[in-house]
Amino acid sequence: MKPTNPVYTGLPTTVFEVMSQLARTHDAINLGQGFPDVDGPEDIRRVAAEAVVNGPNQYPPMMGVPELRQAVADANRRFYGLDVDWRTEVLVTSGATEALSDCMAALIEPGDEVVLIEPLYDCYLPLVERAGATARMVRVTPPDWRLDQEALAAAFGPKTKAILLNNPMNPAAKVFSDDELALIADLVVRHDAYAICDEVYEHILFDGRRHRPLMTLPGMRERTVRIGSAGKTFSLTGWKVGYLTAAPNLLDPITKAHQFTTFTTPPGLQHAVAFGLGKDDAYYGSLPGDLQAKRDRLAEGLSRIGFGVAPCAGTYFLTVDTRPFDLGDDDAATCERLTIEAGVTAVPVSAFYRSDAPGHFIRLCFSKRDDVLDEAVARLARWVGDR
Ligand code: PMP
Ligand code: GLN
Asked: Among the atoms of ligand 2, which is closest to the Cα of residue 17?
């Protein structure tokens, strides 16, 4: 038989699914895949429930219900001072993942180069390769996640079509500094490229940090696509409602890719997310506040046991150094072992690199109930003590 497409043929199942399955099999506490174990605000869920019961439940407008597109435009102004036309500059997608896929399909051509910064969220590389482009990798590594500015500049060239930037960054929990953002913007403008910005953690920054979209930097408004997700902003990861903001000439082809990918996103969920985006400042303050306390709770527990814990400026994730316990340099094996022997599941950080990754770092998700975090720490402490 003729070969199926080589990008997806033989590709392993995503590490998140693999580790969640392993956690289920061994009844382990799942701090692997990134999702909260408490659903987001009840009032948002009630708006969805009522919208589903009352209907209509038929195809909504292809670009998203006007109410949500207006709410996305309003949020751009409220949080970042961006002036956005909801009719021509906002698209609703079935999750940030669809938004990323639409961007790759619509902006990238075979032969293009796309700059990526490792560690990478799992779908980035396959999407770039399926678009026929070559990935030009730059890497940051734990524990300091420092961006080598010369390496970044060297990754840009005449064939660069875009950079795909995840800020705040999963799994590094890095928030790019103003200087780093300025350098990225400068490189994008100088190479007449686009910036595709995955900002799903835009409201999950800690220690008083404020998110600064690359789109707000000089010269970037016209060449940046900004992607958000209700999954992360409202702790409703199963809903898969994403939203994308871009200048009309970029949004138009991206919308055409959306038109033939999902076409629309469930209308009831869209109405509820529109309601959520309008929530008051107290909500947007408590989301990172609660998660910061959880970060500290897990980090302190792990440090007490003796693990190394890398700094975490945002997102759901801690990167943990396993070297103090001589667990070897196969982090996937370490995660399997911790699941089976300690009853705690993590994700190997090497899964976020194409090759030559450090092998002694694991990612743990702290968007869990306090008692769950405490039990995970207790289990790890027992396991370490028994060795
Ligand atoms: N980008 C990053 C960096 C993520 O961590 C995730 C996981 N939520 C996504 C994109 C996908 O978001 P969604 O579930 O809205 O597709
Ligand atoms: N974003 C989540 C994580 O990093 C996983 C989402 C998924 O499983 N696709 O763990």
From this structure: 8
